[in-house]
Amino acid sequence: MPDIVDIAVSNDSFKTLVAAVQAADLVDTLKSPGPFTVFAPTDDAFAKLPPGTIQTLLQNIPQLARILTYHVVSGKLMKSDLAEVDSVTSVEGSPIRIDCSENFEVKNATVIAPDIEADNGVIHVIDNVILMG
After folding, report:
1. Domain of 48: which CATH number?
2. Statement: residue 131 has pLDDT above 90
3. What is the three-state SS of the chain?
4. For the whole model, what pTM was predicted?
């Protein structure tokens, strides 16, 4: 089974995410055994950010790494697991609000494709970049 990075690389919807993970030097981390739960923003999600945001982040690697690790949780948490909790703690260290009452929502994003299993965890595809704070 492919790992989280292989799945992202093979999907045309994650070109911006893959470029950001590479720029932040997180490829090896996300290829490690984990397991990890990744809330993966699509290219359309990144496109919703204010103009210039991505370029600014690519020039500020520590901030980019913080934002990316805010989208990752230790452990393999399927939608059914996340439905049991109100929040999870990201690898970055901040909490992420979870709401499965109506839609499957992660902070300010809706999960548009849950439970994509990888060799080292699970990916939940989201429609917005989630920001700390």
Report:
1. 2.30.180.10
2. no
3. CCCHHHHHHHCHHHHHHHHHHHHCCCHHHHHCCCCEEEEEECHHHHHCCCCCHHHHHHCCHHHHHHHHHCCEEECCCCHHHHCCCCEEECCCCCEEEEECCCCCEECCEEEEEEEEEECCEEEEEECCCCCCC
4. 0.96
